[in-house]
């Protein structure tokens, strides 16, 4: 197998997520998927493939994205909330359309759409853990928005995190 470094040149989500995953589960087994932007039909097709691959397995699915890029904080709050509300509703099509119609610069729209499509038939609840922006760390006129959301089974929703 040959490693193609150019394929990862602009992608950083795995290197951002892996330290958190390793903190909770040392030496995790994982399969990274880099999903390019595509039509909604293409992304839902990938979602079905992912769903089939994990069916019956104890699996954690993670989609990594940030939200608005380099806009005033209030604009980020408003635009990001539109996308977050679609994720909380577990509405893959709504998220896809909202991001496109509102020109939200959410770089992980493809993997997030795939995740929502893959988990569509699952009895999960969604909750926002936290939203914030880069201007909270360092004052700046234009910020990048970030959020952490969780989709979980009802049994895990009541279980404490260990």
Summarize the structure.
It contains six helices and three strands; from the N terminus they run ααβαααββα. The chain is of the alpha+beta class and 162 residues long.
Write structural notes for this entry.
The protein is an alpha+beta fold. It has a single domain, classed as Protocatechuate 4,5-dioxygenase, Chain B (3-Layer(aba) Sandwich), CATH 3.40.830. The protein has six helices and three strands; from the N terminus they run H-H-E-H-H-H-E-E-H. Helix 2 (40-54) crosses helix 5 (109-119), helix 3 packs antiparallel against helix 4 (92-101) and helix 4 packs antiparallel against helix 5 (109-119). The chain starts with 12 loop residues before the first helix and ends with a helix.
């Amino acid at each position: 197998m040959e490693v193609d470094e150019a394929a990862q040149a602009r992608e950083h989500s795995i290197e951002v997520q892996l330290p958190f995953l390793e903190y909770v589960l040392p030496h995790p087994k994982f399969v990274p998927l880099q999903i390019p932007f595509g039509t909604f039909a293409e992304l839902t097709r990938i979602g079905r493939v992912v769903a089939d691959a994990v069916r019956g397995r104890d699996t954690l699915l993670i989609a990594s994205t940030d939200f608005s890029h380099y806009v005033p904080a209030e604009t980020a709050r408003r635009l990001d909330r539109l996308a977050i509300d679609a994720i909380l509703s577990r509405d893959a099509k709504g998220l896809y359309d909202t991001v496109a119609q509102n020109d939200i610069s959410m770089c992980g729209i493809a993997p997030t759409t795939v995740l929502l499509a893959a988990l569509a038939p699952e009895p999960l609840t969604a909750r926002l853990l936290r939203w914030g922006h880069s201007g909270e760390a360092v004052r700046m006129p234009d910020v990048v928005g970030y959020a952490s959301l969780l989709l979980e089974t009802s049994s895990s929703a009541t279980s404490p995190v260990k």
